[in-house]
Design goal:
Layout: H1 16-22, E1 27-32, H2 42-48, E2 58-61, E3 67-72, E4 78-83, H3 89-100, E5 103-109, H4 115-127, E6 132-136, H5 157-168, E7 186-191, H6 202-215, E8 219-224, H7 228-240, E9 247-251, H8 259-267, H9 273-281, H10 285-305, E10 310-314, H11 319-329
Parallel strand pairs: 1-2, 1-10, 2-5, 5-6, 6-7, 7-8, 8-9, 9-10
Antiparallel strand pairs: 3-4
Length: about 325
Amino acid sequence: MPIENNSTFAPRYMKVTDLLAASKKTIISFEILPPTKGKSIESIFTHLNPLMDFKPAFINVTYHRAEQILKTRNDGTTEMVEIRKRPGTVGICAAIMNKYKVDAVPHLICGGFSKAETENALIDLDFLGINNVLALRGDAAKGEDVFKPNPQGHHYAEDLVRQIVGLNNGIYMEDDIIDGAKTDFCIGVAGYPEKHIEAPDLETDIRNLKRKIDLGAHYVTTQLFYNNQHYYNYLNKCRELGVNVPVIPGLKPISNQKQLTLLPKVFSIEMPTELQQEMMKANTPEACEAVGTEWLLYQCRDLLKNNLPVLHFYTLGKPMIIYNVLKQLF
């Protein structure tokens, strides 16, 4: 007896670009970190549950390379041991889609992964019905000053985009795979409103971005910023240089005084003077979070006033700041 396909209960997963095109109001999306190894998926659900009140269109899940630590043997000698502190991106995406019936967007990175490992991850994602990916180079390994690719991996995000596009066309690494199944990934890439830290200038950075778009990437998600004018200038410059795909603004709440110096150092971004002044006046953790909430609210209102179709939030351990902002916006 054939099994009846009851489409009423079947979630309809969509590509990010289709979600953007279909929406008649501002889309909300989030980015989360996998839990550290040893923690359960429940930590993800606890993090996301309050945010789901705002019906996000999609949820990004970051991907992490293995780390190496120096371990002392019993005989006193040392060796470098590889560990995985945040595994599980593919499984978390599947769990999110199953639990919340919302699209998940796994990150894929060059750092620490071979081309074969990337291909196998893409095959797993395709089998699971996950048809969105964010293709990134990734950061340098912990303890290293410059990015070093896996010897069998990709050096640049554009090479990763090229591999994903190839798989969308049924091209696999093994030459003997003829008429291979074609995947159908919607590919996002990263943008840097204040330029990538390694780029000599913004125009060069955007021309590098355009190469990824020309190869087949479908949209851009930006790095965090705290001065909206940087985003508007970046968007205008992208259009001027021929990058005409959606450019999604990435927003992260600031929640403590240490971030005033840490975030500019890590991401090479401007921290507005007014934000610095208000944060330095805050003398309790609660007061710091209140400042961060108000600044994020200000950014969001300004972006909405300029008819931005999507707001993407880096939640990263502070979901309630974002919850409180969204509660006032919608």
